[in-house]
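Lab notebook page, bench 4
Experiment: in silico fold of construct C2
Operator: M.H.
Input chain length: 199 residues
Purpose: comparison with the prior construct
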Amino acid sequence: MRALSGEELEQAKALAAKDPRGWQDKIESNVVEPLPGRPYAEKDAEEFLFISVKPGLYVLGGVAVTGRASNSPGIVIASLCMGTVKFDAKPGVVTDLGAILVAPDDQPTAIPELSKVVSGKDMGYGLGNQVAIRPATPAMDTPDTLRALPFVPADYQALGALPNYLGAHISRVAPIPGVFDYDADGQVIDLRSASGTSP
């Protein structure tokens, strides 16, 4: 989700005041969804999603799935409202988010970033999903058709709890070493902040 500027927020408020029922159809959406059903490239069971976005500050708000042949918006399976990351998308470069990893919460996983996060058992309240980010590194694979483009790894910053705007199953991003962690109460600890406080 792209963070709205003050001007965009004021425009949205003015439209909402004039047209409470239809104002959302008159503004540009700030939700961006790379569709997993239409990957840019595939290699070794990995899908590479590639989209053009408006420059700005973005929040990884959730994870969605969709059918392989679907052009429709995905179904959000995890709202990352209990702890996530933000990053800048700058003009003229490809902001590489690295790998977004998802595992069902009710069974063990071989994904290292999630192996200690999933409960591994049915919690009795429906299927949940755990999400992790493996930040981009030069060692990560890049499709040949994209190698000549100017790539920069996303400069992830911790972000604490948000409203569940997506209205999906509540989840959070697993801790990222050197970026953020959680305290015993589940509050985000910003590891990049000098004070180590929650953002």
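Observations: The helical segments are 6-18. The chain has two domains: 1-29, 31-190.
Next step: discuss at group meeting.
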